[in-house]
Design brief:
single chain, alpha/beta, Rossmann fold, 7-stranded parallel beta sheet, 7 strands
Length: about 240
């Protein structure tokens, strides 16, 4: 990807990693469609600084109607996206580290609806905006790697939703690469966001910066690599 200013859409831009990435893209001069379920505290304060390059669009990835409305609003303003960044995610299991004997599987579909189906309904609705050379990214998690999961007391619904996302995104990749649109899944690391909590090992500002650099230089990655960490190192499925 060259150094020309990019047009980017990011889901879950209201806080956490999505907000950090939004800020970093804007600081680099890129145009950002911030797709948000709620505005959050800081995002509105960025509008006066970036009146022409920050466009906030309501988008609840858990609702097909909301996602389609958001895609229509973005299409009304631009004919393409250089990058679609699927970042929104939930972990309803937070603080409930239990094994399968105590986990509540009746609630799993709520996590899937956002972390797995949510990403796929966004890529479907925004598909017409991707063209040759565009990138479609999804923030997954090392927690979704089957190879890397020896733990027993785990957030089962969250981890399985990310594993399923990886498969869904892989299948999407197989199709969309025919149009020379590339895809990448990213494990952002354990970050001190609302989701990661205060004990997490990584600073979201630092990892967000590394991830934005990674996304901007993704053209240099081998086409065989589809799942990487925030340093660009391949993550096993
Ligand atoms: N933090 C970690 O340690 C960690 C580790 C691995 C992977 N990840 C992944 O990284 C991504 C970002 O996580 P984070 O740590 O920044 O989490 P976060 O601080 O909890 O922020 C989550 C973001 O997702 C948005 N979101 C949730 N449900 C949504 C929906 N239905 N529609 C639209 N937006 C929705 C939230 O919007 P609202 O403000 O409206 O709720 C918020 O902007 C997620 O995909 C997460 O799974 C995080």
């Amino acid at each position: 990807m060259n150094n020309l200013k990019k047009t980017v859409a990011i889901t879950g831009a209201s806080r956490g990693l999505g907000l950090v990435m939004t800020r970093d893209f804007l600081a680099a001069g890129d145009t950002v469609y911030a797709l948000v379920r709620s505005d959050g505290k800081e995002l509105p304060s960025l509008l006066p600084r970036f009146p022409d390059t920050l466009i906030v669009v309501p988008c609840d990835v858990g609702s097909t109607e909301s996602v389609n409305r958001a895609a229509k609003a973005v299409k009304a303003r631009t004919d393409h996206l250089d990058m679609l960044v699927n970042n929104a995610g939930v972990n309803f299991d937070l603080g409930h580290l239990v094994d399968y004997t105590r986990a509540d599987f009746d609630e799993m579909d709520k996590t899937f609806n956002i972390n797995t189906a949510g990403v796929m309904r966004v890529v479907k609705a925004f598909d017409p905006l991707l063209r040759e050379g565009s990138w479609s990214f999804a923030v997954s998690s090392g927690a979704g790697s089957i190879t890397r999961n020896p733990a027993t007391e785990v957030e089962i619904a969250y981890r399985v939703s990310k594993t399923a996302l990886n498969m869904a995104f892989r299948l999407y990749s197989n199709t969309i690469r025919k149009r020379k649109v590339r895809t990448l899944l990213i494990d952002p690391g354990w970050m001190r966001t609302d989701m990661g909590g205060p004990r997490a090992t990584c600073d979201p500002e630092e990892n967000g910066r590394l991830i934005v650099d990674l996304l901007k230089s993704a053209d240099t990655l081998s086409e065989d690599i589809l799942f990487v960490d925030f340093h660009g190192k391949e993550v096993p499925w």
